[in-house]
Design goal:
By secondary structure, the chain is an alpha/beta fold. It has a single domain, classed as Spore Coat Polysaccharide Biosynthesis Protein SpsA, Chain A, CATH 3.90.550.10. The chain has five helices and eleven strands. It has a seven-stranded mixed β-sheet with strand order 5-4-1-6-10-7-11, sandwiched between helices. The protein has a two-stranded antiparallel ribbon with strand order 2-3. Strands 8-9 form a two-stranded antiparallel sheet. Strand 2 and strand 3 form a beta hairpin. The chain is globular.
C-alpha cells in the first residue's frame, strides 16, 4: 500500500501569527515537513490539508499536493483526517501524519515510523512528577524512578487504516532535542538552533 505524508496546516494560529508559513531557518515553516517527506524513501505522496489559500500556494510551490478542508470548524487532528478520508473514500493509502510545528526531524525518522508503524516519542528518564503533595513516578526517600516514561512529541504518527493517529501502539523514540514543538514565540529561536544542528550534523535535506 502506498504511503501518503499527511500534513495538516490551518491558517489561524492563536499564539503565533501565521505560524505555518512564518519563516523558519530561511523557509516557511511548512516547507520543512514537505521536504522531509519528499526525501523519505517510503513516502510516495505528500499532501497538505489546509483552510488557507496562502498556505496552499506555498505548499504547491514546493511540490506538495493540496486538499482544502470542507469544514472550517475542525478542532482536532482526528476531525481533519476524517474530513479528508470521508471526502476521498476511494483513495486507498496509508497515512503518515507530520505536524508542521515539529520540524526538527529527518527523512529517516519518517521512514522509521512508517516501517515500525509507530508514533514518535521522547524518552523521559529523568522527569520527577508530583501529584499534588505526593510523588507520582518516583520514590521520595531515594529519588528512584518507578519506571521509564515516553512523552508523545507530536512530530510523526503512523495512522491506522481508519485514520487514527493512535491506531498503533508502537513507539519510535527520538532524542529530546528533536522533540520540541513550536507553540509560542519563545520556542522559535530554540527550535531554529536545533534545526541548524540537525542540518549540520545529519545532512541538509533542504536542497
Amino acid at each position: 500500500m502506498k504511503v501518503t505524508a499527511f500534513i495538516p496546516a490551518k491558517s489561524f494560529s492563536q499564539r503565533i501569527t501565521c505560524k505555518n508559513i512564518k519563516i523558519f531557518c530561511g523557509y516557511p515553516l511548512i516547507f520543512w515537513s514537505i521536504r522531509a517527506a519528499q526525501k523519505a524513501k517510503l513516502v510516495s505522496r505528500v499532501l497538505v490539508s489546509t483552510d488557507g489559500k496562502e498556505i496552499a500556494k506555498i505548499a504547491k510551490s514546493y511540490g506538495a499536493e493540496v486538499v482544502f478542508r470542507t469544514k472550517n470548524n475542525l478542532d482536532t487532528l482526528e476531525e481533519v483526517i476524517s474530513d479528508y478520508l470521508n471526502n476521498y473514500p476511494k483513495i486507498k493509502e496509508r497515512l503518515i501524519l507530520l505536524q508542521p510545528t515539529s520540524p526538527v526531524r529527518t527523512p529517516e525518522d519518517i521512514d522509521n515510523c512508517i516501517y515500525k508503524s509507530a508514533m514518535s516519542v521522547c524518552l523521559e528518564d529523568d522527569l520527577f512528577l508530583w501529584d499534588k503533595s505526593e510523588p507520582f513516578n518516583f520514590q521520595k526517600d531515594n529519588r528512584k524512578l518507578y519506571g521509564k516514561y515516553y512523552r508523545e512529541n507530536g512530530s510523526i504518527y503512523s495512522c491506522s487504516k481508519e485514520g487514527s493517529r493512535y491506531g498503533h501502539k508502537n513507539f519510535y523514540s527520538m532524542p529530546k532535542w528533536k522533540s520540541f514543538e513550536l507553540d509560542i514565540y519563545e520556542d522559535w529561536e530554540m527550535c531554529e538552533y536545533f534545526m541548524r544542528k540537525l542540518l549540520k550534523e545529519e545532512g541538509n535535506y533542504a536542497v
